[in-house]
Amino acid sequence: MERAKQVAEGSLIFFGPELVGGGNLPGGFYYYLLSIPYLLGLDWSACWRMMIILLSMGIGLAWTFIVSIFGYFGAVIFISLVFNSAALLLVEGLFLNPSFLPFFTILSIIGLCLTFSKISVSKNRYWIATCLLLGLTM
Questions:
Q1: How confident is the model at residue 47 (pLDDT cuts 50, 70, 90)?
Q2: Residue 112 contacts by C-beta under 8 Å, 6 or more apart in sequence?
Q3: pLDDT digits (tens, 9 = 90+) for 28-37
Q4: CA pair distance 49, 53, nearest whole angstrom
Q5: Of the candidates 6, 76, 86, 87, which has an alpha carbon nearest to the alpha carbon of residue 39?
Q6: Which of 2, 120, 123, 134 lies at a CB distance of 3.0 to 4.6 Å from 114, suitable for a disulfide?
Q7: Does the pLDDT value for residue 19 go beyond 70?
Q8: Residue 26: other Cβ atoms inside 10 A
Q9: Do the beta carbons of residue 15 and residue 3 sit within 8 Å?
Q10: Which segments of 20-116 does DSSP mark as H helices, in order?
Q11: Interior CA angle at 125 toward 35 and 53, to 5°?
Q12: CA atoms of 98 and 36, how far apart (whole Å)
């Protein structure tokens, strides 16, 4: 949270996995996302609200995508599997650090599906967007 405040105040941070020798620290993009509530003048609890909002947006996008391909029944099965996922409950249930990873994971899966399926015409555009998105999340 301190690094997010520093970013919101205008100082650049050069801290992430590339500087700690393979540690599990998030990259700079995480701190830029985390600083958005501070830039809006909100308190620290807004970071967790933003996490829930991004997760809801990701599930909504996945719902729309799956309904368009597999229909309503497939989307209901997907949502029930997502909400019973132990990994998602662990990430979203523990309020140790806000995690925006599920949102970007869902977007990446949708991008990969559009890239390697027969649905989309411009596969290169989806592939480049998915690679950039995965690069930002790492």
A1: confident
A2: 130
A3: 677 778 888 8
A4: 6
A5: 6
A6: 120
A7: no
A8: 19
A9: yes
A10: 28-34, 36-39, 45-70, 72-83, 86-93, 101-116
A11: 30
A12: 13
- List the structure tokens of 62: 């996945």
Taking residues 41-61, report their average pLDDT: 86
- Give the up-direction half-sphere exposure of residue 77: CA atoms within 13 A in the CB hemisphere: 7
Residue carrying structure tokens 């229909």: 71
What pLDDT score was predicted for residue 109? 86
Q: How far apart are CA 21 and CA 120, in angstroms?
A: 39
Give the mean model confidence (pLDDT) for residues 54-64.
90
The encoded tokens of residue 34 equal 């985390």
Task: With 0.85 as the threshold, say if the pTM is over it.
Answer: no
Buried b (16+ CB within 10 A) or exposed e, 78-97: beeebeeeeebeebbeeeee
The amino acid at residue 13 is I
